[in-house]
Amino acid sequence: MSELKNDLFLRACKKQPVERTPIWIMRQAGRYLPEYRAVREKADFLTMCKTPELSAEVTIQPVDLIGVDAAILFSDILVIPEAMGMQLEMHEGKGPVFPSPIRDEKSADELLDIDPFMHLSYVLDAVAETKRELNGRVPLIGFSGSPWTLLTYMVEGRGSKNFAKVKSLIYNNPKLAHKILDKLSNAVAGYLTAKIEVGVDAVQIFDTWGGILAPDDFKEFSLQYVEKIISNIFRNDEPVIYFPKGVHHSLIEISNCGANVIGLDWTMDIGDVRKVIGDKVALQGNMDPTILYSPEEKIKKEALKILESFGDGSGHVFNLGHGILPDVEPQKAKHLVDVIKTESIKFHK
Ligand code: CP3
Predict the structure, then answer these.
(1) Distance CA 131, CA 129 (A)
(2) Domain tally for the chain?
(3) With CB atoms counted within 10 Å of each terminal CB, which end of the chain scores lower, N or C?
(4) Whose CA is nearest to atom 30 of ligand 1?
């Protein structure tokens, strides 16, 4: 870690003193960048994920172009179900599709127990290649979906509005749901451990669909598995970030899950959340991604509001409250990064 030239992000995750607030942006390697679209023209999305040189190239683009304080490995959460044997298709403009979703015992039993070094070696090769090319400029984040968020795609087969099929599964056959969630937890813990072993400096668990569950169901079908994963990851002091999108309840329980950092979406006031759980964990977030459609003065004003709401001291990693949208102008993202770099200094005297 000492070989890192910029370790602000890691220090903020551990609530150690920083000279300024670090910033990275969820989905920072993506379609809003013309340089990403140029690579994407030559290769489809999954080929990019599976070609370490291409993955490394687009992972590093936002470090060069936008100036973020951390890189996040270009990949997808759905590579795990694919490695477990599910056919995965990325449909242009429609998103990911599993043509044969998991709906019964038989298809669940067919899911493989994976060894990341065997079934996801291309991701680990991409980590090694990216670390080499980054050459210590900024830390590299690895990630996974939470078991619950992975289960929603595996059962629905695609993005969903009301999640009827996965909710039917947990209410009609909770035993089967738990069996799959347990298998996914083992896969995720092994996968994140392997990524740390080959060099990522931190990991983030995306629980994009944690917020569709009522509080008790969230604890039963999502949070308990995240806790189990975090306690089963072998790590030295690599921080774990948990991002339970849309979960306003259970903040205390969430802050006790073992993660160093809790990611917030934009529907909560970060200062209020800090008062409740900010002593225990660092916080990441939480600007509305659509603010980047605004003029630069408005972006600055909104960014300042969040810095001020968090207040003085370390323990804040600036980010959007969800992924950057594909039609945002890159200059707007760069402006946000520049604002955070200059305006956050006064909160760290
Ligand atoms: O943050 C980063 O820059 C790293 C890359 C990253 C991608 N997907 C690349 C991607 C990360 C962290 C993810 C995570 C992911 N993937 C999540 C959790 C985070 C979130 O946004 O909620 C989810 C739910 C997925 C599943 C997924 N993959 C969806 C729903 C889609 C389609 C939506 C879309 O943006 O097109 C994808 C495809 C995908 N993953 C793209 C990228 C850059 C777009 C692919 C392309 O057409 O170029």
Answers:
(1) 6
(2) 1
(3) C
(4) 95
